[in-house]
Give the backbone structure.
Amino acid sequence: MSKTVIAVGGHIGDMELTAGPTLAKMVLEGARAIIVDCTYGERGHPTLTPTVYREQKLREGKFFADTIGAEFVALDYSDGFLPNDEAVAEQIAQIIREARPDVLITHWLKSMHRDHEYAAQAALRGVFLASIPREEEPLERHTVPSILHAENWEDMEGFEADTFVPIPDEAFELWRTGISEHAFARGETYGFRFIDYYSALMEVKGCLVGHQRACGFKTAGTEKFALAGP
């Protein structure tokens, strides 16, 4: 049976950047992948207005998803203003009940960005809400077996990877093609070389597990990721 994975990020580009290689690998192996971006990330460009950059971000997110064969969902929240409330968690719970994922990937719970923290909290709350019986909910409840926190240089407080997913060349190239469409990842917003950083990080993690490249994750709870082997 093929797997389903949902990746929940704070902004368009977050999960694409960090979990994207693993999503590409899983899709190549027959999985269904859904990227859920909680905000547009539209306030991060030094010269474009938020309205203009919002439309660009949506195009970039769709391009990435199409490139790796994933589905793309953007929740209607503004960059920097993701609420820490039940409504966001309910939206994620609905997606979980409909898609019935085997794996959920999100941010680590400590970050320099509030949207990252709130997205992670909403994702975990959504996992809980999707798992409990509710008379007003027509869809069957669903428990997500594996929850992973992606490694993000902006979310590193207390983060220590304990699960490593080898990334084959084909998945890496799909990821690089897709993420290169994102202006911020190319360093066009405030200059950080995201693509170089995460490409190098994959090689470093690969050294730890005897592969050319790997992505590191921190597991939530005791379950280990089923695709962590060769």
DSSP finds seven helices and seven strands in the chain. The first helix runs from residue 14 to 18. The CA atoms of residues 206 and 213 lie 4 Å apart.
